Amino acid sequence: MLEEEEGVLLDASWRRLAGDSPEARAVGRELLLRWSEPHRRYHTLTHLWATLRAVDVLAHEAASPDLVRYAVWFHDAVYETEPGLDEDRSAVLARELLPMTGMAPERTEEVARLVLVTKEHAPGPDDPDGQVLSDADLSVLAGSPDEYLAYTAAVRAEYRRVSDADFRAGRSRVLNALLRAPGLFRTEFGRVHWEPRARSNMLAELDRLAAGAPADLP
After folding, report:
1. Measured in Å, how far apart are the chain's first and last C-alpha atoms?
2. Which of 74, 178, 183, 167 is nearest to 131 (CA)?
3. 24 and 115 assigned to the same domain
4. Verdict on whether the full-model pTM lies above 0.85
5. Does residue 126 lie within any of the structural domains?
6. Which domain holds residue 18?
7. Does 113 share its domain with 147?
């Protein structure tokens, strides 16, 4: 999908979610600008749109689907390739901007909490909204082999300043940590429909990393 088309669809999606007040439109414009920053290769409008669509698939398992959608908009709104810090800053941004849309303080704080769930993707068993957000964010892992290769190439491009050896080591640690968990996905839909393909994709990537496959930097 062309970036311009994605921007139009996302603008409409934001207005359905947040309303059409001048303040809500201003927040939406800022978010779209952030997601369009030139240094991004994976955490782009395409990722935002795909994650929102994944939430639509999982919405029946959420307690508050719209709060999950707000969290999707903010979860990588700050992206400077600093894992942990990016999520913290994105949560702060949610606390700063959402009151401008008229959102109540307790709902704003819940969105910020959900954003922080994406630091570890380890929501608790009594956190259905966190489970839906985490699974939607990780749904890219369950793409077709070609889609997964495009995803890994985009992630590598975001870390182009890191040497191949250091990237392979760091990426392998991330993949192994995810694979050691009892399950990648916490929702019923994710476990049934996404888990097997995601594990297959990740194991294949680990094999490529171990073999020292050259990085594909678009």
Report:
1. 17
2. 183
3. yes
4. yes
5. no
6. 3-120
7. no
Burial of 185 (0-12, 13-18, 19+ CB in 10 A): buried
Any domain includes 215: no
Residues 34 and 79 in one domain: yes
Distance between CA atoms of residues 2 and 101, nearest Å:
28
- Is 133 inside a domain boundary? no
Sign for the CA dihedral angle at 103, 108, 139, 88 comes to: positive
What is the residue type of 27?
Answer: V
Q: What is the mean pLDDT of each run of 10 residues along the chain (218 residues)?
A: 79 97 98 96 96 98 98 96 86 98 98 96 96 98 97 94 94 94 96 98 96 59
Distance, in Å, from the CA atom of 218 to the CA atom of 211, rounded to the nearest integer, reads 21
Work out how many domains the chain is built from and give that number.
2
Whether residues 78 and 165 share a domain: the answer is no
Rounded CA separation 179/106 (Å): 34
CA distances from 158 to 1, 60, 93 (A): 20, 33, 22
**Close Cβ partners of 210 (under 8 Å, ≥ 6 residues apart):** 172
